Amino acid sequence: MFENFTYKQKLFGLIIVAILLFITANKRSFQVTRRAYNQVDDLQKKLEYVNASTTSLSQMQSELNLYDKIIGKQGVGPEEVQQKILDFTTTFVNIKVSGMEEIHTAESNGFNIITNQLVLEGDYNSLIEILYEFEKNFHFSNIVNISFLKEKEYKTRKNKLRVKIIFQNYEKNN
Questions:
Q1: Are residues 60 and 140 in the same domain?
Q2: Same domain, yes or no: 67 and 123
Q3: What is the pLDDT of residues 34-51, one digit of tens each?
Q4: Which parts of the chain fold into alpha helices (H)?
Q5: Same domain, yes or no: 129 and 100
Q6: Is-contact 123 79, C-beta < 8 A?
Q7: Are 112 and 58 in a shared domain?
Q8: pTM of the model
């Protein structure tokens, strides 16, 4: 059958068959492969974005916890913070609450500064222990000042050791 054609016609026919095979192969496999490759590439980009978002979310959460530790817990009323301070103090046996000032509120740079003052009485080791526990475990407010006071009682001729603790919370003005 192919003996009647010249080499030029056979070459031309072979080129046409090759082009038809290329078009068919392109439609059946090359385009499908390219689409799959593009989908994989898009999914990898989305996965990288999600992983970056998750990392930034956990990083933001740790930063928020750090800020809460620095400025005190947000969304807690001043009276509730004062009550939490007293509740925390009463868990220690050798400590006596000698005084508690009224809550002081001030405004500065768009924040409300809420200050609580507590005066405790006891021996040195007990006072140091409660200060350490306040720093370590009390998350409702932040200690900004500690001062020790030694007072002589003339009636009993004994020295009393007191510590004055100043707590502060910061809340954003509305």
A1: no
A2: no
A3: 888 899 999 999 988 887
A4: 7-25, 31-71, 78-89, 124-137
A5: yes
A6: no
A7: no
A8: 0.59
Angle at 122 (CA atoms; ends 118, 126), nearest 5 degrees: 95
Q: Please write the tens of the pLDDT for every residue from 119-173.
A: 999 999 999 999 999 998 888 888 999 999 998 888 888 889 999 999 988 877 7
138 token code pair: 């009390």
Same domain as 117, residue 54: no
Does 38 share its domain with 7? yes
7: which 2 tokens? 């080499």
CA dihedral 59, 60, 64, 66 (to 10 degrees): 30
> How far apart (Å, rounded) are the C-alpha atoms in residues 73 and 78?
11
Q: Please choose, from the candidates 67, 33, 36, 93, the residue with its C-alpha nearest in 3D space to the C-alpha of residue 171.
A: 67
